[in-house]
Amino acid sequence: MSSEIEFIPDRLNQEPVIFIGMTDSELRLGAVVSVCFWLPVCLVLAALLGQAILGIAAGVVLALASMWWMGRKLRVLKRGKPQGFHVLAITAFFEDAGLKSKTMIRESRSWDVRRTKR
Prior knowledge:
Layout: E1 17-19, E2 22-23, H1 24-49, H2 52-78, H3 85-97
Antiparallel strand pairs: 1-2
Helix pairs in contact: 1-2
């Protein structure tokens, strides 16, 4: 008898889903992005009204709401697709919108190595 496990399912090597279809790394990235966007916006708007503390509370509530919205959208995007598909889909969206440089090959062509005879 060997002391090694002969079969390890693939799902053990994947990040677990912890909040509405988002993994830990997606949740952290979404939290940072939503807090960095909503907190300054709400603080500026509330400071104009003279209620800065209300701006902090509104920023946190809107950040949580945007996290919930992102989780729902990611859950729909991931459903029935292979692991990592959503990352490629989001990258393709950013490339199409012109927010990222074109790094993906998405053309239907025949590629040639062009070797020459010596």
